[in-house]
Amino acid sequence: MKSKSTKILSAFLILLFLSCSYLMLQAQSKRVVGKRLRKVVIDAGHGGRDPGCHGQYSYEKDIALDVSKILGNLLRKNMDGLRVLYTRDYDWYPALKERHKIANDAKADLFVSIHINSSPKRVTTANGTETYVLGLHRNDQKEGAIGEYAENFAQDGGLLNPQDPMTQILIAQYSQTFLASSILLGTFIENEFKNQGRKSMGVKQKGLEVLAGSAMPAVLVELGFLNNPSEEAMLNSPQGKLNCANAIYKAISKYKKEVEKGTAIQSAN
Ligand SMILES: [Zn+2]
């Protein structure tokens, strides 16, 4: 049987461990807020052998690439110091794993994937935009990606060390804050589409591989329905493409301000 003093000592040590853990978490959360948005990865969906969905005369992969490039140019031209990277800038198919790897290796702060919707019917009247953020059932994979790229987060404190019992808690914390940041950006994107008079189907959660593997906030934007003839015409017009890119560009500039205020956490480095 343990003596009374041993019990008191154990209780004291547990309390000390919990207080230290709490203080470390507090320090880490302070460290990750109020950063800057420095690198954005734009991912044009599909490409090459994978055309994505199609309308009467056009393919998703081509529209996604055009809008991605317009968005990249808007960001480069108007946001000083922001680096824009593409997962593809011509018609080829990088595997989904390669797409996250580009973003994770670059230690990007944000991942934006551009797609176009279609519905099961050949021709539809369905229309409007929607933005996906990661569904909770894929959270393990997101945490895995954050763990795998732990060195991205270890620059100013080295707290994300796999040997450290705090690491799992911190990884979970990052994953939750990335989701909250993704929802914030998604909401801004959908609001910008609404401001343009488009129908918004809102921000939704889905277990998408391309969002799960990136160790940073990530959204996937569906720009409209390609099998709706009027949306196909809009998505193929230079003005339609510019409007889509502009909505996402404006949303990213609002999001950047939130990141600088510390409201959104884009990455830990
Ligand atoms: Zn797609």
Q: Could you please describe the fold and organization of this structure?
A:
The chain is α/β, with parallel strands linked by helices. The chain has one domain: Zn-dependent exopeptidases (Aminopeptidase, 3-Layer(aba) Sandwich), CATH 3.40.630. The chain contains eight helices and six strands. It has a six-stranded mixed beta sheet, sandwiched between helices. Helix 2 links the parallel strand 1 and strand 2. Helix 5 packs across helix 8 and helix 7 crosses helix 8. The longest helix is centred in the N-terminal third of the chain and has 29 residues. The relative contact order is 0.20. About 5% of the residues have low confidence. Bound molecules: zinc ion. Zinc ion binds next to loops.
